[in-house]
Amino acid sequence: RIVEYSAAESLETAETQVALSQADLAQARARAAEARVRQEQAARDLDQSRLKALFPGIVTELYVQPGALVGRSTPVLRLVSEELRLRFAVPEAASRTLKPGSRVTVRLEPQGLTLTGTVDHISPEIDTLSRHQKMEARLDIPEALRGHIPTGLMADVELASTPSAATTP
């Protein structure tokens, strides 16, 4: 009888070990699934934490330090477009002849440069005091001059059919 009892006990022990191993395997699979979900969430969070600029530019100011917690509307940095734009005002009478696509010639006297540009934005209103209309033009900057023309300069702007006006690029 001892042999039968020992064999039955061995069988029961083996079945218990199998059941415990199956439970351990199920628990390990659950932990692995949970880890995959956490990894996927971390990948989504990382993707959402990346800043994506809508245009090429230069970072001129950082408003927060790396690692700081920010919300969707928290300013993080200041990005300035690499594209130089010319902002200028044109007398009301002369502004009627301009439209997006009109060409302008820009002289930067202190630098000895003459550039051309294309009007791409015209304000829909005229300043009531000065009777000037504000406009913007995209400047055609030769590759050799990119990054070498400072911003905020005064310039003379020549329109296709009107006299020049002082402006700021």
How would you describe this protein?
Helices cover 31% and strands 33% of the residues. It is rod-shaped, with a radius of gyration of 35 Å. The N and C termini lie far apart (104 Å). It is of the alpha+beta class and 169 residues long. It has helices at residues 2-49, 92-95, and strands at 57-62, 77-81, 85-91, 103-108, 113-126, 132-140, 155-159, 165-167.
Structure characteristics:
alpha+beta; 169 residues; 33% strand
Widest β-sheet, arrangement of strands = 3-6-5-4-7-8
Taken in chain order, the helices and strands follow as HEEEHEEEEE
Number of strands: 8
Determine the N-to-C terminus distance.
104 Å
Helix proportion of residues, in percent? 25-40%
Low-confidence stretches: 162-166
